[in-house]
């Protein structure tokens, strides 16, 4: 057993109480002493979670201030955890303790040793960040959130940042693709899932360009990205932040960035024929989820309420769609979407995924090596085909949890195991589908329904049955004839999106909503890819294991809760059947 050597130990004062403080290789501890010099309570902070050390009595939030006549005092800032009021995550706050030393020389000695310890044990901390602020996302408070809550913390930690306030869509993506990023340790977005997607596409695209790889080749193994991405939540849903941190809180996310946490993340590439369409990390959804997004685009004036309204309207339309789904199953012996586990910080399934995806990797740095492929072949294993009519088809590389659905679309999905979960909801009666939707908001198993199938997969293909393709092409021709732009005669919106949106304008909203009594219900839906409408119906998806890395560590173990009732049906299971990784 390794012994944690003591680097510095002395008596210090905190207020009017005397403490014995000790700095070891990995921890800063201070123990309160009573009048007889006996130990009382002890506070222990990992050196890796110390944010900064400042001379004197210093306060950072809401603004920086330093008291006078404090030549024997120093202030330590560190991560302090607290309950979020929800069982699904922990809030991180800036802890602050002011120590008083018997002499100024001892004060200087403490500060020197603490700063040396920070450099020694926190080599992955960022020093320079490129920050993109979306001033229009969510409640339009991105700038205020960054300057009042995040910037002071970055300054305290000695992080310099270059801030870009975006003025148009895809500005952040284009900046990352085209500008010189020399000297930046990572990129950070202040906003919602939309601007995160821009950073995701920019970082992946730039990495493939520098590696000489074509993103449009669906059979290629993409190069893993070494430029980290940070998320400061300031959007409407912030699904990616919630699924990787456990809470949507700007200070918590900022502290994860400061200490250099690193969470690998699987990414799904979506192709049509031999062309890349988009990347996804949370949802590629057809049917219900695509229709809801398309309908909500017609009601943007309603704000976030448009999603509730559109969901209700699409549900009442009672639609299902014909399709052919092909998927490449993952190894069922490694994990399963029905195994009642949660992907938590230090997840053993994801750790085994690293060993499987990068079998010759001696350490974490090798995760960025291009010499190791994720799969020996994209066609490894046998493809499974399913044909029929479906209410919804979804592929997710994470739980896709959010405050409204704390367990998400697939509660046992993993962030970095190189697989995705394919959820197939077959055509069923309206009450059955409503039961499926309602279970996303509770702890009931949404997969325990006879018309729902879920599979852990490495790749998915979707196509239309013979006969449906002709109807699809006729509808798109009719829509695109009225939707061409002058430049290049290209549709201003995707053909499938226009099919749903513009058809409602031509026939009237009543036809769009009353699917049971329409003279001709739509034959195809659209794909919802992380909140964006895809321009194609027939697509292929491939999961790229640990393609990017976030400044996060996953949902912490202390906030774990049972995802489902015990498989044996015990009422008082209390999560004993849940694997707390």
From TrEMBL:
<dbReference type="InterPro" id="IPR057465">
    <property type="entry name" value="CERK_PH"/>
</dbReference>
<dbReference type="InterPro" id="IPR016064">
    <property type="entry name" value="NAD/diacylglycerol_kinase_sf"/>
</dbReference>
<dbReference type="InterPro" id="IPR045363">
    <property type="entry name" value="CERK_C"/>
</dbReference>
<dbReference type="GO" id="GO:0006672">
    <property type="term" value="P:ceramide metabolic process"/>
</dbReference>
<feature type="region of interest" description="Disordered">
    <location>
        <begin position="465"/>
        <end position="504"/>
    </location>
</feature>
<dbReference type="Pfam" id="PF25382">
    <property type="entry name" value="PH_CERK"/>
</dbReference>
<dbReference type="GO" id="GO:0001729">
    <property type="term" value="F:ceramide kinase activity"/>
</dbReference>
<dbReference type="Pfam" id="PF00781">
    <property type="entry name" value="DAGK_cat"/>
</dbReference>
<feature type="compositionally biased region" description="Basic and acidic residues">
    <location>
        <begin position="475"/>
        <end position="490"/>
    </location>
</feature>
<dbReference type="InterPro" id="IPR001206">
    <property type="entry name" value="Diacylglycerol_kinase_cat_dom"/>
</dbReference>
<dbReference type="InterPro" id="IPR017438">
    <property type="entry name" value="ATP-NAD_kinase_N"/>
</dbReference>
<protein>
    <recommendedName>
        <fullName>DAGKc domain-containing protein</fullName>
    </recommendedName>
</protein>
<feature type="domain" description="DAGKc">
    <location>
        <begin position="124"/>
        <end position="274"/>
    </location>
</feature>
<dbReference type="GO" id="GO:0016020">
    <property type="term" value="C:membrane"/>
</dbReference>
<dbReference type="InterPro" id="IPR050187">
    <property type="entry name" value="Lipid_Phosphate_FormReg"/>
</dbReference>
<dbReference type="Pfam" id="PF19280">
    <property type="entry name" value="CERK_C"/>
</dbReference>
